[in-house]
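Morning, I've got a small favour to ask if you have a moment. You're getting the sequence in one-letter code plus the fold written as C-alpha cells. Thanks so much in advance, here it is:

===
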Amino acid sequence: MKTNAEEPRLVVFFDGHCLLCDGFVQFLLPKKTDPVIYFAPLQGATAKTLLSPADSGQTETVVFKNETQIFHHSTAVLRVCLYLPFPWAFLSSLALLIPRGLRDSIYRFVARHRYQWFGRNEVCRMPSPEDLGRILP
C-alpha cells in the first residue's frame, strides 16, 4: 500500500456490489479531472487503510475523501461532481444549496432500495485496462 506521502488526493469509495454505485463510477471514469480521481470499493484494502472502521463499514453510502475531509451520502456525490467539467460542476454547486437533510433523506431512500431497483453484483467488476490505474484495491 502507498505511504501517506503517496496517497491519492481524491478517492471515491463505493459499494463494490451495488450496480447503481458501479454506474456512478462508470459515469465518472471517462471524465477528465485534475487532480485525478481514484476509486476503491468500500469492501477493499484501500478503504480499510485510508478510512476509519466506521467509514469503511458504511456500504449504504458513497464516501468521498479529498485532501482534508471525508464526505458521505449526497454531499459525497455532489462534492465529487465539483471536480467534473461543465455542466456537472455547475449543477453540483447548485444542488449543494439544497439543505443537506432534504438531499440526504432522498439519498437514503434510494440507498435502501438500490439492490432491489438496480441489482447486485456478487463480485466487484474488473476494470478495463485503461481504467485499471485509477481503481484501487
In short: The first helix runs from residue 19 to 28. The beta strands are 10-14, 37-41, 63-65, 70-72. The chain has a mean pLDDT of 90. The helical segments are 19-28, 45-50, 53-56, 73-81, 88-95, 100-118.
